[in-house]
Design a protein that fits this description.
Blueprint: H1 4-24, E1 28-31, E2 45-48
Length: about 50
């Protein structure tokens, strides 16, 4: 079982890693995937967000 100090260190290290990854790789998602009302058969499109 992890001690509280070790657990906090792991959480902080994980957060820093996620922040670094976000700086190097843009966020992306597929458009139209959750749109259950859409009757078109067109494939979803990849959308890259620019921040």
């Amino acid at each position: 079982m992890l001690r509280t100090g070790n657990s906090i260190q792991l959480i902080v290290a994980s957060y820093k890693l996620l922040v670094d990854l976000e700086k190097h790789f843009p966020r992306a998602y597929l458009s139209g995937v959750d749109d259950s009302l859409s009757s078109s058969n067109s494939p979803p499109k990849l959308v890259v967000t620019e921040e």
